[in-house]
Design a protein that fits this description.
Layout: E1 2-5, H1 10-21, E2 26-30, H2 32-35, E3 45-48, H3 54-61, E4 66-69, H4 79-99, E5 104-108, H5 120-133, E6 138-144, E7 147-148, H6 155-164, E8 169-172, E9 178-179, E10 182-183, H7 184-196, E11 203-207, E12 213-214, H8 215-226, E13 232-235, H9 237-250, H10 258-263, H11 274-279, H12 286-290, H13 299-307
Parallel strand pairs: 1-2, 1-4, 2-3, 4-5, 5-6, 6-11, 7-10, 8-13
Antiparallel strand pairs: 9-12
Helix pairs in contact: 1-7, 3-4, 4-5, 6-8, 6-13
Length: about 325
């Protein structure tokens, strides 16, 4: 039995769909609201609860041999959400897994994660990695580059920002940060590959696609694919953080969170070809896949819908 947390998130939706298609036994830990809106025609077994509920965690982990831990808050959460969901939640999952004698935990981190980082997201992700490594469980930690695909929370947010301002696009810094995009389908295949490959046990694996790209070039690519060109205005990162906090007071959700800016603070790249060397997966090119879903109308409606939708509730 494979227990998946965070199954209704961007990665979780694609992963669970592929696991079900392969006929693997899957169990989900979801709150009641999410459990009523499952996107799969034949839903898997569901345990109602959350990762901070000890009783629900015990029921979810009993009989599971692998946990794929995807629950996170870094696209929408504030710092306190990161502490509560990312760090405290992972520790609770580890405690329940040890009590239930789960064989292994697989989780996603971030390129550049370290407990010594000056950036809250990367620091907390580093602390999560340490908790998993010291758990006494067999583990696999995957550090993917920026994951993209239909309804992702980064590339589509860039398109929303471009559409939101018809005059200019505000770019944090000079746009020289190097990024390493990875298609969601390739990441899902890598996660599933971890289930069957012994060489991924007790390993931290960095993954990326077939190309590096600077932030400035990425923005120009999104403009070209989405059909909306704007002059670029470079804004100091600290000013962008001020604006993010200001908009966060007025809107339920902000397109540019402080964690979003943490991701863009430093170069975030893996070794080219790493996903092929470990999993024999030939990664998809970024622009080829973006052309299949990004050129579409309705960004203004999507912007309003996102900005005023309430934040996810874990408990």
């Amino acid at each position: 039995m494979i227990l998946v947390t965070g199954a209704t998130g961007f990665v979780g939706r694609h992963l669970v769909g592929e696991l079900l298609a392969q006929g693997r036994p899957v169990r989900l830990l979801l709150n009641a609201e999410r459990a009523e809106k499952l996107p799969w025609p034949e839903p898997p077994e569901v345990v109602i609860g959350n990762i901070l509920d000890d009783e629900a965690l015990f029921r979810a982990t009993t009989g599971a041999h692998v946990i794929i831990h995807l629950e996170n808050a870094f696209w929408w959460g504030r710092s306190r959400d990161l502490e509560r969901i990312e760090l405290a939640g992972t520790r609770a999952v580890i405690t329940a897994a040890r009590a239930a004698r789960v064989g292994r935990i697989i989780t996603l981190s971030q390129l550049g994660a370290t407990p010594a980082s000056a950036y809250p997201l990367l620091r907390i992700k580093g602390q999560v990695e340490e908790a998993v490594r010291n758990s006494g469980l067999a583990y696999t930690i995957l550090r993917p580059g920026l994951t993209f695909g239909e309804d992702d929370a980064f590339f589509n947010h860039l398109a929303l920002q471009i559409r939101a301002n018809p005059f200019v696009f505000f770019l944090p810094g000079r746009g020289e940060v190097a990024l390493h995009p990875l298609f969601i389908g390739d990441l899902v295949q890598a996660i599933i590959g971890c289930l069957d490959r012994l060489d991924t046990v007790d390993a931290t694996i960095e993954l990326g696609g077939p190309e590096y790209i600077s932030l400035a070039d990425l923005v120009r690519t999104v403009m070209r694919v989405s059909g909306a060109s704007r002059p670029v205005v470079h804004v100091p990162p600290y000013a962008m953080r001020w604006f993010s906090r200001l908009f966060g007071l007025a809107l339920r959700r902000n397109l540019v969170t402080e964690q979003w800016l943490d991701i863009l603070a430093t170069n975030r790249t893996a070794r080219i070809g790493s996903i092929y060397q470990v999993f024999e997966i030939r990664p998809q090119r970024m622009e080829d896949k973006m052309l299949t879903y990004m050129r579409r109308p309705g960004y203004t409606r999507a912007l309003l819908r996102y900005s005023f939708r309430r934040r996810p509730r874990i408990v």
